[in-house]
Amino acid sequence: xxxxxxxxxxxxxxxxxxxGTSFETIAPDAKAWVYTSNAEFTNEQLADIEKYGDVFxxxxxxxxxxxxxxxxxxxxxxxxxxxDTEGDTMCGRAQDSSVKFIKELEQIISATLMDRxxxxxxxxxxxxxxxxxxxxxxxxxxxxxxxxxxxxGMIKTKEEFLSSWETPIEGSWL
Length: 174
Prior knowledge:
By secondary structure, this protein is of the alpha+beta class. It is 29% helix and 29% strand. It has a domain of 107 residues. The strands form 3 sheets. A 5-stranded antiparallel beta sheet has the order 1-2-6-7-3, with helices on both faces. A 4-stranded antiparallel beta sheet has the order 9-8-10-11.
């Protein structure tokens, strides 16, 4: 399958793959995690993300109940996981299993996904990444504009994802 030719558009962002429960039915207060890759995914990596993501979602439980989960690949650079526990709290084991899934996926697809110090931003229509420690210097020397959007990996809910995942650097926590 050619994933690049099968892109779905949402009102927020470009979605390359969507797995599990329909995103539209996930509650606004659902837990959310976004993992940034340091490079665009290849078609082979996308196929593996889809394959192993489906398996993960089919087995993801919290308090003995299946998690109403959704996995998306966005802009061919990000993996977003949403967990709607329908009013129940999500157990620590279920949260740990999602982290374990991402760590295993890193090994399977040979990509870096767990580097929380990696900042992704829009550089004239292209997604660029750099270590957080270099961001201020790049802004100071004009390589990165304060008005550029960055992709906020610190979001915690679907509602935060929709309102502040793509946000200008200026005025953000950066």
